[in-house]
Amino acid sequence: MVRSDARENRERILAAAREAFAEDGSTSMNQVAQRAAVGAGTLYRNFPTREALVLAVYQDEVERITGSVPELLAEMPPLEALRHWTTDLVEAMRRKHGLGDALSPTAHQTITQQTYGPVVAAITALLDAGKNDGSIRADADAGDFLQLTGALWRTAPGPEDRSPRMLALILDGLRERP
């Protein structure tokens, strides 16, 4: 069992790294340690390399996003839950792509393999909820949806961000027609 102080240190490091990497993808390990208010030894004991830290930040983000599905479905209709969830995913993927240079091709492949299954399962849960209430077409497929939404995180963020309009088109295509 992990001691509570060790778990808190790890969580603080991940939170500091997430913020630091979002601001500047070239943030050093020492800058992350300072931001997390931990010593370098604590940082390296938890994350022996910068790549290990970046991968852990990604994994933590995916777990947060995929874990939000039940709460979203409890709060709103399936199509609206899917809109909120996808918007959150787009922001996370934009942050991930911003750190792309920090990862080797092997690490990119690793994170893709680790996150694909949970992301598709989350999309499936959202689509199934809509299929069950009749708001989403019966032939909607999670893999197709993920591939379509891949274009969203490649659009330029900011005032000219086209992703909300593009997402509206994708969601409209999912609606069950009378």
Structure description:
This protein is mainly α. It folds into two domains: 1-48, Homeodomain-like (Arc Repressor Mutant, subunit A), CATH 1.10.10; 50-174, Tetracycline Repressor, domain 2, CATH 1.10.357.10. Helices cover 73% and strands 0% of the residues. The termini are far apart.
Q: State the helical fraction.
A: over 70%
CATH-level-2 architecture of the largest domain? Orthogonal Bundle
Question: What is the 3D shape?
Answer: elongated
Return the CATH class of the largest domain.
Mainly Alpha
Radius of gyration: 18 Å
Describe how the helices and strands are arranged:
Elements: H1 4-23, H2 29-36, H3 40-46, H4 50-67, H5 69-75, H6 78-98, H7 105-133, H8 142-149, H9 163-174
Précis, in short:
This protein is mostly helical and 178 residues long.
Key phrases:
Tetracycline Repressor, domain 2; Arc Repressor Mutant, subunit A; 2 domains; single chain; mainly alpha; 73% helix; 0% strand; 178 residues
